[in-house]
Structures are given as C-alpha cells and as structure tokens.
Amino acid sequence: MNAGTHPRLVGTPVPETERLRLRAPVAADFEPYAAFAASSRAAFVGGGVGRNLAWRGFCHLTGHWVHRDYGVFVFCDKATDAPLGTTGPFYPEGWPEPEIAWSVWHPGAEGKGLAHEAARAARAWAYDVLGWTTAISLIDPHNTRSAALARRMGCVRDGTFVHEQYGATDIWRHPAAAALADGGMEACA
C-alpha cells in the first residue's frame, strides 16, 4: 500500500468537549503511542516496551473498533488535533465487565483536567449511545493518579480482578447511568 492509502475506520463517532475532540485511532497516532508505550509513564498499562509490542498494543486499540463496533477514543487537542491520550469504552477478551479506560500519552497533558474531561465525555457516550448501565475501570493498585481520577469521576473501589498478564488490579465501579442521568448526565458537544 502506498502512503496515504491506508484503510481507515469510517463512520466512527467524534464526541467533543470544550477543549477536546475524541476520535478513533488513525495511523498517524502510532508514533505518539509508541513513544508513550516505550516510556516509564506507561508502566501501569503494560508499557516500557519496544516498537514491536507497541504496534501490537496499538492494533489492539484499532481492532477493538472493528470487532466490538466501539473502542477507546484518542483524545486530541481540539485546535491542533494533537493526540494526547486514549479514553473510552473497552471490553477485551478476559475482562470481567465493560470498562471505561484511559491513558495520558503526552506528559504536557497531565495536571490540566484533560483526562477527566475526556473520560467523562467517553463515559457519557458509552451510557447514552451504547446503552451501558454501568462500567468499571481497572487500575493498578500503585497507580495513584488513575485512582484519583476514578474518585473524581465518582467511582468507588469494588474488589480486585486478577489478570493473567497484568496481575491484580483494583476494580473501580462508575456511578450507574441512571444515577448520572438523575443528576445531569455529562454531555458531549
């Protein structure tokens, strides 16, 4: 295939927030993803890997859209389309329940509330469009930043899941869709 003729995921939703656009992964996202996956910042999501395993992980993200008809979004700066991380509905084989997942790829995107903004929009989309009534987030017990984000989103610890590759992870239960609807569901623009 020539450059520029790569197949693309088409017809995928593009929720937006005040600062962000959430879209399906595209080929150009691989380099930022690979840089993240190779870094120590990815330690809690199986990172610290070379390009070969990063490619497998990236294709896992895009393949999820193909086989589940939904997947994690790449959240991007609305003005520049620069990819900053991923968030969204995720339910790979072996997971105990559907998850709202998130990772911040770009260190400059941390500490600005962008992951929270993106994850709230993704959760609202999963509840509103996919019809999910509940969701979990699986978080490494040592990942204090992700646990803090889960608490900020109203999640509570709800047990432990032992994954064959990642070991023990904490299950964080999101508020039920009905509870959020009663208090004003987060909206996507």
General description of the model:
- This protein is an alpha+beta fold and 189 residues long.
- It has a single domain, classed as Gcn5-related N-acetyltransferase (GNAT) (Aminopeptidase, 3-Layer(aba) Sandwich), CATH 3.40.630.
- The protein is built from five helices and seven strands, in the order βααβββαβαββα.
- The protein has helices spanning 30-38, 51-68, 114-128, 144-152, 177-182, and strands spanning 20-23, 73-77, 83-90, 99-104, 136-139, 156-163, 167-173.
- The strands form two sheets. Strands 1-2-3-4 form a four-stranded antiparallel β-sheet, sandwiched between helices.
- α1 packs across α2.
- The radius of gyration is 16 Å and the shape is globular.
- The N and C termini lie far apart (36 Å).
- Residues 184-189 have low confidence and may be disordered.
The separation of the N and C termini measures 36 Å
Mean pLDDT: 88
Structural class: alpha+beta
Number of helices: 5
CATH superfamily: Gcn5-related N-acetyltransferase (GNAT)
- The percent range for helix content is 25-40%
Which helices and strands occur, and which strands form pairs?
Blueprint: E1 20-23, H1 30-38, H2 51-68, E2 73-77, E3 83-90, E4 99-104, H3 114-128, E5 136-139, H4 144-152, E6 156-163, E7 167-173, H5 177-182
Antiparallel strand pairs: 1-2, 2-3, 3-4, 5-7, 6-7
